[in-house]
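--- STAGE predict ---
source: upstream dedup step, 1 unique chain passed
mode: sequence only
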Amino acid sequence: MAHTLELDRDRLADDPLILIIPGLGNSGEDHWQSRWEATVPDCERVDLGMWDDPHRNTWVNKINLAVHRAGRPVILVVHSLGCHAVAWWAEYERPAYGNPVVGALLVAPPDVERPDVDERLARFAPAPREKLPFPAFLAASENDQYCSLRIARGLASDWGATFAYAGSIGHINASSGIDDWAFGQLLLAQLLREHRNRQGVGCDVETATRWRVAARYTRLPWVHGAGEEVQGADW
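--- STAGE serialize ---
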């Protein structure tokens, strides 16, 4: 079943700008991020530069510039190493909660601290451990060669993100065979709904709703909110 992103062209002035943030090597034309960029209105890619030889602080500064140039609320749609760049941006800039970033979809962050990690990923270690100053989903795959579910779940807990199990689809990239990635669209649509309905809606209500959205899609016990313990899970 397709999931629309629920972006209405007539209300784009009120909707957040969607900033696409790829990871190492950028995202090619068959990557779901590129597909979204080509089809979703009001969606822009952040040109981090140095795609194959990343420099952490350069990427952080590029994200900071893109966020502030938007001049309006933004939702970040982030893949792989870009997740760590966003976490470092939040660590350095310490923006107010929900301002200017009103939400983030963090997808397939790699484990930058494992002993055999690619030297380019190690430049982003250690992973920041502070809670992110915006609501977020962290989606991870069971057979991602760059990060185990256990580590991904730990990052979600540290960052205060709602963890969403994305299935066994590798690194959730062009090689995963997911085309426009319907599950990711569902999660992004939820972040947009939360932003639109935030007036008078408490954080606890949003977190519970975010958990239900992820759980309804997968119907699996390891889809859970930040900080929740999962009984019987062995990763």
